């Protein structure tokens, strides 16, 4: 995704979050949010239908007709699901009783709607991974080693969405926002638990890597080349490699944990958050590694629930750092 599209989508989500939090005390804001999301859902469904009929008339362009048809179906279904979701706040606004009233709450309503749309987008990404001739076209920098700017510009939108998603500067100040996101102190015994968690994560990663190589050897080589190109600073001096690994660890750990475990998990739960988190890892394709990522995400969610987001961030950052450095040393995971 280009920088312009990232800025546009991030700004759109922030605006929707502002309206949702205003909806906590304003029926007009609630109605505005419902109508905006209804319109956007209709647009998404319309794009899916348009793509379907375009395929029937002209056939697929660049990818197989089956893959393009699957993309069209996902868009149409996501749009229909979004429109159906809008019934909850609209029914409540008209004074009718609604079951599962929590879905009519503006912030929850927006969160579930975004969950549907992001998941649909990621499913389309997995289809594209399987369908396009050159997967590197889908990756930042064409599959080359990520630059510090690319790493930070990927992380920053997640943090911005997390902050405004929980009402920063709208309903919460800095301290209240940090508390809502789950950030806080961590004791020495809890730090020890984080260390053990990281070791267990590495063990799970090695086991998943072995299973991946055995069960899907061709995809294993393809994904390995992609991961090595993006995340392994091969040929760089050790200090530069360590700084790169540290940047990957801290930026990905902080941004992803702030959004997923900090903002999303308290609203949608560990399971749904883990589904969404796993779907973000398009670079692994339809591989068994996704099972490992899902299990790991469930475990990080439990770590966040039992301790806090600080523990989840430290575990994620340390794990990413070690994975990059092990790959740099020739022990790829």
From TrEMBL:
Name of one Pfam family that matches: Rce1-like
Keyword set includes Transmembrane helix: yes
CAAX prenyl protease 2/Lysostaphin resistance protein A-like domain span: 240-322
Transmembrane regions: 6-21, 33-55, 67-88, 108-131, 151-170, 191-212, 284-303, 310-331
GO molecular function annotation: endopeptidase activity; metallopeptidase activity
Keywords on record: Hydrolase, Membrane, Metalloprotease, Protease, Transmembrane, Transmembrane helix
The protein, known as: CPBP family intramembrane metalloprotease
Annotated organism of origin: Rubrobacter taiwanensis
């Amino acid at each position: 995704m280009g920088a312009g599209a990232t800025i546009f989508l991030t700004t759109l989500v922030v605006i929707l979050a502002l309206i949702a939090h205003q909806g906590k005390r304003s029926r007009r804001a609630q109605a505005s949010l419902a109508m905006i999301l209804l319109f956007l859902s209709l647009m998404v469904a319309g794009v899916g239908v348009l793509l379907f009929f375009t395929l029937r008339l002209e056939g697929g362009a660049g990818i197989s007709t089956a893959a393009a048809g699957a993309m069209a179906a996902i868009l149409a279904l996501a749009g229909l699901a979004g429109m159906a979701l809008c019934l909850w706040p609209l029914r409540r606004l008209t004074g009718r009783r609604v079951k599962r009233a929590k879905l009519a709450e503006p912030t929850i309503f927006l969160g579930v709607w975004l969950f549907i749309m992001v998941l649909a987008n990621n499913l389309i990404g997995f289809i594209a991974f399987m369908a396009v001739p050159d997967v590197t076209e889908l990756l930042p920098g064409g599959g080359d080693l990520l630059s510090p700017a690319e790493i930070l510009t990927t992380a920053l939108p997640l943090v911005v969405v997390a902050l405004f998603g929980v009402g920063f500067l709208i309903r919460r100040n800095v301290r209240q926002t940090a508390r809502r996101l789950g950030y806080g102190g961590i004791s020495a015994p809890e730090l020890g638990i984080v260390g053990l968690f990281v070791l267990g994560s590495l063990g799970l990663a090695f086991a998943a890597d072995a299973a991946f190589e055995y069960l899907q050897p061709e995809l294993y080589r393809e994904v390995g080349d992609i991961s090595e190109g993006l995340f392994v600073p091969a040929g760089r001096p050790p200090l530069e490699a360590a700084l790169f690994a540290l940047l990957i660890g801290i930026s990905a750990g902080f941004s992803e944990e702030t959004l997923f475990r900090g903002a999303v998990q308290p609203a949608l739960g560990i399971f749904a958050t883990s589904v969404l988190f796993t779907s973000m890892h398009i670079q692994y394709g339809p591989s068994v590694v996704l099972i490992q990522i899902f299990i790991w995400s469930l475990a990080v969610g439990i770590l966040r629930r039992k301790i806090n987001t600080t523990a989840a961030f430290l575990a994620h950052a340390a794990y990413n750092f070690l994975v990059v450095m092990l790959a740099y040393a020739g022990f790829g995971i």
